[in-house]
Specification:
About 20% of the residues lie in helices and about 30% in strands. β11 and β12 form a beta hairpin. The longest helix is centred in the middle third of the chain and has 14 residues. The strands form 2 sheets. Strands 8, 9, 10, 11, 12, 13, 14, 15 and 16 form a 9-stranded mixed sheet that branches. A 7-stranded mixed sheet has the order 2-1-3-5-4-6-7, sandwiched between helices. α1 packs parallel to α4. The chain is α+β, with helices and mostly antiparallel strands.
């Protein structure tokens, strides 16, 4: 059975998350609702895109994803529905869906129109628009019933790593920092290997620091598990489970991880120089 996922920047203290779930259940009490995250930084579309992009594909086909980030309602901004990769995605037309699917063309995009009658008053986008649409789709309803085809959704540019051939250098930037303080860049393993460069023949530079090896997983960093404790606090670069270059402190956290110890922030550059 398909499910409804819920992602927001509402946090877990206020009433908003419970209100949305309550509205969904009042429309269909048998719906299975799965939280992806409600700890998105307020209005942070890039963080939202990273989290949703790397989680949605693990859900069964037909899953409906509500994305309530930067979703306040105004008559000037549309609410939209993406049908893509076997899933449905509901969000405000703020560009977040273009960030999630920067390299995948949606099968169809709809402007949600169920709230366009003169007597409809929207108090809260997620309960008044997103929840009814999600339940309609979950119940097997057609998207054409709640919307019309839309050809011009807002597009945002996903930051891409570039290769400077004259300098023999990849230039990327930090796009995400996770709960362990790991710093994730936009340099993908695929882009790295596309340039046919030997893994041993490079230096990763950031701030005034450098690393000269990329591991394929965290555990590969530990060479002797009988002395695993000696690796705590050591720095490393890996290609993470999203296939992106990540700077990490082994068994670090948000207080003593790569973000803190390296002093890095989202938007800063990372360089890979090749000999």
């Amino acid at each position: 059975m398909a499910v409804i996922t819920f992602t927001s920047d509402y946090g877990l203290v206020d009433h908003r998350v419970a209100s949305v779930k309550g509205k969904i259940l009042s429309l269909n009490e048998d719906v299975k609702i799965v939280d992806i995250s409600h700890q998105i930084q307020a209005y942070n579309l890039l963080q939202t895109a990273y989290i949703v992009r790397n989680s949605y594909s693990f859900f069964p086909p037909g899953t409906v994803h509500i994305i309530s980030v930067d979703s306040f309602y105004t008559k000037e901004r549309k609410c939209i529905l993406y049908e893509t990769d076997g899933h449905y995605f509901i969000a405000a037309d703020n560009g977040v869906l273009s960030l999630i699917f920067y390299d995948i063309k949606p099968e169809a995009v709809y402007e949600i129109t169920l709230n366009n009658r003169f007597d409809d008053e929207v108090h809260f986008t997620s309960t008044d628009i997103f929840a009814p649409v999600a339940v309609h789709l979950h119940n097997g309803g057609l998207p054409e019933v709640i919307g019309r085809k839309f050809k011009t959704p807002k597009q945002l540019s996903f930051p891409r790593a570039v290769y400077n051939e004259s300098e023999k250098m990849i230039i990327g930037e930090i796009m995400y920092i996770d709960n362990f303080g790991n710093v994730v860049s936009n340099i993908s393993k695929r882009f790295f290997e596309k340039n046919n460069i030997a893994l041993e023949n490079f230096i990763i530079k950031f701030r005034n620091l450098a690393l000269s090896k990329i591991y394929n997983q965290y555990t590969e960093f530990v060479h002797d598990w009988t002395k695993e404790h000696e690796y705590h606090g050591k720095s490393a670069a890996i290609f993470n489970d999203a296939g992106l270059l990540e700077l990490t402190i082994y068994k670090g956290n948000e207080y003593n991880g790569a973000k803190t110890l390296f002093g890095l922030r989202v938007g800063e550059n990372i360089y890979i120089e090749f000999n």
